[in-house]
């Protein structure tokens, strides 16, 4: 018997393709890319697995109803007509998240209020009592999405955004989002088959996500809870089996993952977060200024980093990006170096031609993930041989 249903995995701009690949690799059916989203099918166990294992998803939502809607009264009637007793009870708390893109509806807060009224009235009219609203920590979070005259109702199975992995307790001024970090690593082709370096590691997010990819550790294994654990049909035994089977798929990693930062406070924070993620055996963090370093291996090196943007950190942009280029040229032959920046002007000062540029967003900032291939036959390598 096929118990599959449709779901939507939400993600960041530019990550749709890699999220679709993740879903296919996990075993999802009918995978279809959207805009900042990927549609797919699976059963309840797969919904648990998607939340646990996907690296580039922000939310997993389960659509439960869809209808055309003319105005607020029409919305109220159609929400009221739904069988909410399948999802809520009078002892359940709930919250509404509304997104509106329509000429007929302009205020998402009003849509949330109207939806809440319809659900509460349905219970009050049927049972004589009603479930309470809890905006911060609801048992069930309901998504209302209105596009023109189409209304889609869905349950949020994740709860808090899936970038909140649970391992990061200490952060710096400009920490990188965990989903963004994982997406950049996957876009860079990182697969754990060589040594890895983040030369400006901050609080260690790229290092941690790199180790989890290399060891095939489920992305959200350190997370305390998912929204679906509060649903009245939650199957704890099934979830435990999903967790156990996912952990059995981890693999050994036989290379080095190293991070540098010149700030002692950043090194301490990175080390704390790596301990929280139970990855101390795989990652080393050292206090070093990247511009004073040389490649630590004679084999191929994969480098991914998030340099300061100048928006939140005060640096001399021209000199800083010039130093990045010079350090890569002189000291890092045989390296694929990737970094993200929102300062597109600053890329001119690197002094190297990127072999790839991928458009991504860091929060609201349009950015580029750029790749520089540093060949073994660099001028420095040739000079050393001649000596």
UniProtKB/TrEMBL annotation:
Question: Which residues does UniProt assign to the signal peptide?
Answer: none
Q: Which Gene3D superfamilies match?
A: 3.30.2130.30, Vaccinia Virus protein VP39
Q: Where is the THUMP domain?
A: 46-157
Asked if Methyltransferase is a keyword of the record, the answer is: yes
Q: Which GO terms describe its molecular function?
A: RNA binding; rRNA (guanine-N2-)-methyltransferase activity; rRNA (guanine-N7-)-methyltransferase activity
Give the SUPFAM superfamilies listed for this entry. S-adenosyl-L-methionine-dependent methyltransferases, THUMP domain-like
UniProt KW Cell membrane keyword = no
Identify the Pfam families for this entry.
Answer: RlmL_1st (PF22020), THUMP (PF02926), UPF0020 (PF01170)
> What are the UniProt keywords, alphabetically?
Methyltransferase, RNA-binding, Transferase
Q: PANTHER family from the entry?
A: RIBOSOMAL RNA LARGE SUBUNIT METHYLTRANSFERASE K/L (PTHR47313), RIBOSOMAL RNA LARGE SUBUNIT METHYLTRANSFERASE K_L (PTHR47313:SF1)
Q: What is this protein called?
A: Putative N6-adenine-specific DNA methylase
In which organism is this protein found?
A: Arenibacter echinorum
């Amino acid at each position: 018997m096929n118990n599959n249903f449709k779901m939507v995995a939400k993600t960041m701009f530019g990550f749709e393709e890699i999220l679709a690949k993740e879903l296919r690799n996990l075993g999802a059916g009918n995978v279809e890319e959207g805009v900042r989203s990927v549609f797919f099918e699976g059963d309840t166990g797969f919904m648990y697995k998607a939340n646990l294992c996907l690296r580039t998803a922000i939310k997993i939502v389960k659509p439960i109803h869809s209808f055309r809607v003319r105005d607020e009264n029409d919305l109220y009637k159609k929400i009221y007509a739904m069988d909410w007793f399948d999802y809520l009870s009078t002892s359940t708390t709930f919250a509404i998240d509304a997104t509106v893109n329509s000429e007929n509806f302009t205020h998402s807060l009003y849509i949330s209020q109207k939806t809440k009224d319809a659900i509460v009235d349905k219970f009050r009219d049927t049972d004589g009592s009603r479930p309470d609203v809890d905006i911060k920590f609801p048992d069930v979070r309901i998504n209302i999405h209105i596009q023109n005259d189409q209304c889609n109702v869905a349950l949020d199975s994740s709860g808090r955004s899936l970038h909140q992995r649970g391992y990061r307790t200490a952060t710096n001024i400009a920490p990188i989002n965990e989903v963004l970090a994982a997406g950049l690593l996957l876009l860079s082709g990182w697969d754990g088959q060589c040594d890895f370096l983040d030369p400006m590691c901050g609080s260690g997010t790229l290092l941690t996500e790199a180790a989890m990819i290399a060891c095939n550790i489920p992305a959200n294994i350190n997370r305390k809870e998912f929204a679906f654990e509060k649903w009245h049909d939650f199957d704890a035994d099934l979830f435990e089996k999903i967790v156990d089977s996912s952990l059995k798929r981890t693999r050994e990693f036989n290379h080095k993952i190293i991070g540098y930062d010149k700030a002692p406070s950043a090194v301490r924070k990175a080390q704390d977060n790596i301990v929280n993620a139970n990855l101390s055996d795989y990652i080393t963090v050292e206090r070093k200024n990247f511009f004073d370093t040389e490649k630590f291996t004679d084999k191929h090196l994969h480098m991914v980093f998030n340099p300061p943007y100048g928006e939140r950190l005060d640096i001399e942009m021209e000199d800083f990006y010039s130093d990045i280029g010079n350090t890569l040229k002189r000291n890092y032959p045989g390296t694929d170096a990737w970094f993200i920046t929102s300062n597109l002007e600053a890329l001119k000062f690197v002094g190297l031609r990127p072999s790839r540029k991928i458009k991504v967003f860091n929060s609201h900032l349009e950015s580029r993930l750029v790749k520089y291939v540093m060949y073994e036959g660099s001028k420095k390598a040739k000079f050393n041989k001649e000596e």
